[in-house]
Design goal:
Order of helices and strands: EEEEEEEHHHH
Number of helices: 4
CATH architecture of the largest domain: Orthogonal Bundle
Helix content: 25-40%
Structural class: alpha+beta
CATH class of the largest domain: Mainly Alpha
InterPro entries: BVU_3817-like_C_sf, BVU_3817_N_sf, DUF5606, DUF6852
Pfam families: DUF5606 (PF18347), DUF6852 (PF21186)
Largest sheet: 5 strands, antiparallel
Distance between the termini: 29 Å
CATH topology of the largest domain: Arc Repressor Mutant, subunit A
Length: about 140
């Protein structure tokens, strides 16, 4: 599964998989308990493939941050998201040295760590860029 099918829903814990569209929104399945819930267009929903982390020079896509954690941890879960603020910020600095401390809050780091561990527990480890994969077949056809 790609990150463009993984959702974060404001006010709901964990992550969700986009299952189907409905008239008033869509159906999502929780990674935590497997329950399917209807999500209306009024809910604040973020697709993980569209989220980025601020650095001092640019915004890094969340998938790249996940890839860095994945490589650092050698495909294993990272530290517990309930670790202390100091532990979380130190860990995140090891993963992404140039993250902007003024715009990336400890609560954001906690979410990133929690999401990464949820994805790993569901064996979702493909953090590649879906847009890059769409471009490559076209380039091959042109050749």
């Amino acid at each position: 599964m790609k990150l463009d099918k993984v959702l974060s829903i404001s006010g709901k814990p964990g992550l969700y998989e986009l299952k189907a569209q409905t008239r008033g929104g869509f159906l999502a399945e929780s990674f935590i308990d497997g329950k399917k819930i209807p999500v209306s267009m009024r809910n604040n929903v973020s697709i993980l493939s569209e989220i980025a982390i601020y650095t001092y020079t640019e915004e890094i896509p969340l998938r790249e941050v996940f890839q860095k954690i994945y490589e650092k941890e050698e495909a294993k879960p990272s530290i517990d998201h309930k670790s202390s603020k100091n532990e979380l910020t130190t860990y995140f600095r090891e993963v992404l040295q140039e993250y902007d401390e003024d715009r990336v809050y400890p609560s954001d780091i906690k979410k990133v760590i929690q999401w990464y561990n949820l994805l790993i527990s569901k064996n979702i480890t493909d953090f590649s860029d879906p847009k890059a994969e769409e471009d490559s077949p076209q380039e091959e056809k042109e050749s």
